[in-house]
Structures are given as C-alpha cells and as structure tokens.
Amino acid sequence: MAGSREQWNTKAGFLLAAVGSAVGLGNMWRFSYMTAEGGGAAFVALYLGFTAVVGLPIMLAELTLGRGSGRSPIGALAHFASGRAGGDAWKGLGIVFVAAGFLILSYYGVIAGWTVRYAGEALLGFGADPGAHFGEISAGWDAFGFHLAFMAATVAIVYGGVGAGIERVSLVAMPALFLLVIGIAVYAATLDGSTAGYEYYLNADFANVLSTKVMVDAAGQAFFSLSLGMGAMLTYASYLGRDNDLPSESLIIAASDFGVAFVAGLMVFPLIFALGLQGDVGDSTIGALFVALPKAFASMGFAGRVVGFLFFLALVFGALTSAISLLEVLVSAGMDGFGWERARSAVVMGAAVTALGGASAWSTDILGVIDAVALNLFLVGGGLALAVFVGWVMRDPVAEAGSGSRWGRFWLACWRNLLRFAVPAVLVWVLANGVPPTLQSVADLLGGS
Ligand code: TRP
C-alpha cells in the first residue's frame, strides 16, 4: 500500500503547496478585519507571538505525524497511537479533524465565491453603494452560485492528484500571488494620505490587546492562518519522502504566512486611509474588505479598476490554494478510510461539502457562527490534542521529526518540551476563554436573536 502512495515531485513543490495552504483568505480578508477590530499593531504583535510559540511547534508536530505515517489524519493517529496510552481512541481525533475540514471548507468556499465575483466586478467598475451591494450578493442564490463555481474548480484540481493537480497549480499561483501583493503594497505607498494608514496599522495600542477577547481572537487567527489543528499540514506531509528537513520547512511556512499577512496589511490599510474610508473599517465585520475596498477602488477611476481586479485576483489565488488543501484532507480520508479511488473521493467529498456550504450562503450570520465554532472549538481544541499526543503519547517524536534535519537534538528537545508544557497551558487558557462566548453565539443564532 505504501508503495503506491502519491508523492510530491519536488521539494519546492511541497513547500509552495504548504505555503499555499497557509496563505489564503485568512491572511487578507480575515487578518485585515481582525487587525482593525483588535487595535492595529498590537493585534499583529500578539498574532506573531502565537505563531511563533504555539503555531510553529504544532506545525512541526503535524509534519512529523504526516511524514512518519504516510497516511491521512485518521490513519496517522492510529499508526502512532498503536500500543500507546489511549490506543485506538486517538482515531476519534482524526474523525474530528475531518469534521472540522467539512465545516471550514463549507464557508470558505462561500467567501471565496465573493472574491471571484468581485474580481469580475472590479474590472467593470464598482457601483456607488458597495455596502448595499455586499448585503445583496453575500447571501442567497447568487452567493451559492459563485460558491458552486469556486468549488468546482477546487474539485477539478484535487481530482488531478498531488503532483499533477495540487503541486502544479501551487507552483504558478503562489509566485503570482507574492508578486501581486507586493506590487499593490508598493502602489498603495504612492497614494497621497497613505501615511495615515501606516500609522493606524503600525502604531501599537496595547491597552486594547490586554483584553481576553483579543487574545483569543489572535490565537484562533494564528491557527486558521497557518492551516493548523485539523490535519491539513499533516496530510500534505504524508506525501513527503524521508529526506526533508521538517523543522526548517516549518519555519519557512510559518514565516511566509506571517510575511504575506503583514504585507497584505501594508496594502489594505494605506488604500483605505488614503481615501478617507476608515469609518468603514472601524465597524468592521466579515464584510469590511468587501465594502471599504470597493469604495476605494470606485473612487480611483481607471487605476481603481486595474488595481481592484489584481487585488481580488490575488485573493482568488490564495483562496484556491487553501481550499485544495482543505479538500485534500477529506479526499485522502475517503481514499484511506473507504478505499475509494481519488476521482470518486474528490467528487463525493466535494459535492458533500459544497452542499453544506448552502447554510453559509444562506446567511452571513450562520457563516460567522460556523467560523467561530470551527476556530475556537475545533482548531484550538485540535491543536491542544495534537500537542498532547506528540508531546506525551507518541514514541520518540524527536527522532521522527529530526530525521533528515540539520537541527540538533537540543532544539528538537526544546520543541518537545514546548509541546508538553507551554503549548497546552496556553491553549487550555484560550479554550477556557474562547469556548463559552462561542457556545453563546451558537445559542443566540439558534434562538433567532
Ligand atoms: N490557512 C488558510 C487561510 O489562511 C485556510 C486554510 C487552509 C485552513 N487549510 C486549512 C484553515 C486548514 C484551517 C485548517 O486562508
């Protein structure tokens, strides 16, 4: 069985695919409105802290489990749990991962659908009232239609396989995304009044950061942005050979992910502030990016059409390379668990998750609640379980992670101790503070208020 498993063609291909999974709507759409809500630079600093102290160790834990087992999440946990404390019960965690993948991809496809639509509308020129427009198109059959189109493209790529589908698309889309984001950030710097944007973005307001809510948000954002806590990185690593340097690759992936989020802020905030639209960010919601930026582009004439199109194109590339990683978790689970062929698994899983997206396409309130549940319960909880599993249950994770690596045992022992003590402590705190308000938001939604 192991002999027939697909593999990445090149190291660069794996790295770009993994960076492609991490870099997505989380870095541009979610990062911008979370930063606006959390007080600018102070939120960014917290998010960087979570990325380094919690995200990076869990990234390496996922890559280690994936490469070491050569299986999808359920199989990987079963493999390393066999004969250890908890035994087969750990398989349940793999099932939770797959469920989280269903939840996240279902609404991710809806937001990605908005970006596809906005790329087209940018070219034609945005209308006069983007707020009302967003209200009309963000929910209902329109939203579902674009979600469906986006998901069809996602299924087609995953259907193509690891090397010929996922890797090939990542090798083109990711470099294009880097160029677009950097180019637009440079363009934004040339606008009169952009300094107000930098001041807002880069000036820390630490009074705000000390709130529990902002800390919980920064943790959830770090997990989401790095694609951690549900086995996506694990699944990509399951197609790797033994000679990869996993600690170095974890660093590269985490640094690139933070880098793109940071530069995305350098394009979004100057654009918005140069045009005096900060009011639209202040009361930020899920729609901030889809309201404030079209206003900015609409007021910029022809340049606004071109830059607006390129901006939403970058979002589409980011969304696509992330969505394929989410779908790949479901597809590989179908292949390993049910013995399905890739083609069949891609179509069945893709159809199921697209249908589930109907709920988020129906109402942005539902979308917001699913997002909160997925992050604050599933991803953070999944991260905690992964840290405990690799730190305490798995046999000799240091040797497994260090194979093929130029990092010495000292650093890997530090990593294991982070997973044993610091990471669980932080995540228990985040869960304790994040779960009650999340459950409350579910109750509010079901109660119809
Ligand atoms: N990281 C992606 C983003 O920032 C989204 C994503 C892809 C993801 N795969 C994931 C999030 C797995 C959580 C888990 O847009």
How does the SSE layout of this entry go?
Blueprint: H1 11-22, H2 25-37, H3 41-69, H4 73-81, H5 91-124, H6 130-137, H7 141-159, H8 162-189, H9 194-202, H10 206-209, H11 212-225, H12 232-237, H13 246-274, H14 278-282, H15 288-298, H16 301-338, H17 342-356, H18 358-362, H19 364-393, H20 397-402, H21 409-447
Helix pairs in contact: 1-8, 1-13, 1-16, 2-11, 2-13, 3-4, 3-11, 3-13, 3-19, 3-21, 4-5, 5-7, 5-15, 5-16, 5-17, 5-19, 6-15, 7-8, 7-16, 7-17, 8-13, 8-16, 9-13, 11-19, 11-21, 15-16, 16-17, 19-21
The structure holds tryptophan (TRP).
Tryptophan binds at residues 21-22, 24-27, 104, 224-225, 227, 230, 232, 322, 325-326, 379.
Key attributes of the depicted protein:
449 residues, globular, mainly alpha, 21 helices, single chain, 0% strand, binds tryptophan
What can you see in these coordinates?
This protein is mainly alpha-helical and 449 residues long. The protein has 21 helices and no strands. It has helices spanning 11-22, 25-37, 41-69, 73-81, 91-124, 130-137, 141-159, 162-189, 194-202, 206-209, 212-225, 232-237, 246-274, 278-282, 288-298, 301-338, 342-356, 358-362, 364-393, 397-402, 409-447. It is globular. The N and C termini lie far apart (52 Å). It binds tryptophan. Residues 21-22, 24-27, 104, 224-225, 227, 230, 232, 322, 325-326, 379 line the site of tryptophan (TRP).
